[in-house]
Write a structure and sequence with these properties.
Blueprint: H1 10-20, E1 29-31, H2 33-39, E2 44-47, H3 57-65, H4 70-75, E3 77-80, H5 84-96, E4 100-104, H6 110-118, E5 122-125, H7 130-144, E6 147-148, H8 155-171, E7 177-181, H9 186-198, E8 203-209, H10 232-241, E9 244-248, H11 250-264, H12 274-280, E10 290-294, H13 301-314, E11 318-326, H14 331-341, E12 345-352, E13 362-370, H15 374-386, E14 392-393
Parallel strand pairs: 2-10, 3-4, 3-6, 4-5, 7-8, 7-10, 8-9
Antiparallel strand pairs: 1-2, 11-13, 11-14, 12-13
Helix pairs in contact: 1-8, 3-5, 3-8, 5-6, 8-9, 9-10, 11-12, 11-13
Length: about 400
């Protein structure tokens, strides 16, 4: 299962592009006035989240699997994946008539697990990290003779991902800087190899999730790049071709996901949002046109809901407050009328009669409110306190 330690050249990347013609989409690049204004430089988004299967991974997976001979296709393919690579391998295997078995972490987002199964693969969940899945995949290959499709340590996979770089060179010739998510390094090494050949003076920066770095928590909402370290082949490439590496926190990634959804109408998963997160955090040098690669959009619906709620709270547009009212008819209605007069949308009201510290004639309430901004939140709290409603802000 060891990968060939040979980086792909421009001729191999061009060959991959020809193989992918009519298979992978040439994904669009969108300008964003909002991001450009916030960041202070022209910003364009490479929307690989709109790729088939929802991420860039189909490029490398299909480029690798399409090169299998008849006997290898009959024996099937195996992959280890946090989600996107698994979906891509499942889809590509189906297209060439091969059986696929995908090993995924037990906590992989269900949206990615279900999609992988939908594309026809057998999915086996186990382990808490990608490394355990790689071990399981290796054992399966040894027993059954299937072909292992590595998520990043494979020249054909890297060449497939590199086709994004060829597209970028044509779509955004004015680009000064390109930002690429880095997990295992297949995407970043591929794009960087292509751009170094096509636009030698371009600045290329890799973006990692802080939680996966040494000393980090080991967890990140950017599950697509939740790899402890890049591969040997990809790292040797990245050492040569990257101009720098930046890390971002889950808080910053969350902010980027919310902004992209709200202002650009693009659904982007954590790994795909890291470039925008780095820009919003002011962590990327330069003044000219910058292009973050939005590598995928396969975010679990429950995580997206949590991220959106948290993002609204941080922005001061989502207020949860505990108070109390008299336990008599009409008292809650008075408070709700007050909030309506303050132009507040009440999302949820929860009664808490059992709290021991409450006066016997009162009932506790927890109000979930949609507000305009942080200043509006402070106005609401001040008005409630002034009118005799004690307030405890919960978010």
């Amino acid at each position: 299962m060891a990968a060939t330690r040979t980086r792909p050249g421009l001729d191999e990347i061009e060959a991959a592009r020809a193989r992918l013609d009519g298979v992978a989409r040439v994904t669009p690049v969108y300008g964003s006035e909002t991001l450009s204004r916030l960041i202070g430089r022209e910003t364009k988004l490479k929307a690989e989240n709109l790729q088939r299967t929802g991420s860039f991974k189909i490029r490398g997976a299909y480029n690798r699997i399409s090169r299998l001979n008849a006997a290898e296709r009959a024996a099937g393919v195996v992959a280890a994946s946090a989600g996107n690579h698994g979906q891509a391998v499942a889809w590509a295997a189906r297209e060439v008539g091969a059986v696929a078995r995908i090993f995924m972490p037990q906590d992989a987002p269900m949206a990615k697990v279900d999609a992988t199964r939908h594309y026809g693969a057998d999915v086996e969940l186990g382990g808490t990290a990608l490394e355990a899945c790689l071990d399981s995949a290796a054992a399966y290959v040894a027993e059954h003779g299937a072909t292992f499709i590595h998520p990043f340590e494979d020249p054909l996979v890297i060449a497939g991902q590199a086709t994004i770089g060829l597209e970028l060179a044509e779509q955004v010739p004015e680009a000064e800087t390109v930002l690429i998510p880095v997990g295992g390094g297949g995407l970043a090494s591929g794009i960087a190899l292509a751009l170094r050949a096509a636009k030698p003076g371009l600045r290329i920066v890799g973006i990692q999730a802080e939680g996966t770095l040494p000393g980090g928590s080991g967890f990140t909402i950017a599950d697509g790049i939740a790899v402890k370290k890049p591969g040997e082949l990809t790292m040797s490439i990245l050492d040569d071709v990257l101009d720098g590496m930046v890390s971002v926190t889950d808080e910053q990634i969350s902010e980027a996901i919310v902004l992209l959804l709200e202002r650009t109408k693009l659904v982007v998963e954590g790994a795909g949002a890291v470039g925008v997160a780095a820009l919003l955090a002011g962590a990327v040098e330069g003044q000219g046109c910058v292009v973050p690669v939005l590598s995928g959009g396969n975010i679990d619906a429950t995580l997206l809901i949590s991220v959106m709620r948290h993002g609204l709270a941080v922005a001061g547009r989502f207020l949860v407050v505990r108070s109390r009212v008299g336990d008599r008819p009409g008292e809650l209605a008075k408070l709700l009328t007050l909030l309506a007069d303050e132009r507040v949308n009440v999302v949820e009201v929860e009664h808490q009669r059992e709290r021991s510290e409450l006066p016997v004639a009162d009932t506790g309430v927890v109000l979930t409110l949609l507000t305009r901004d942080s200043a509006h939140c402070e106005e609401i709290l001040a008005t409630m306190a002034r009118l005799g409603y004690p307030t405890e802000r919960l978010s």
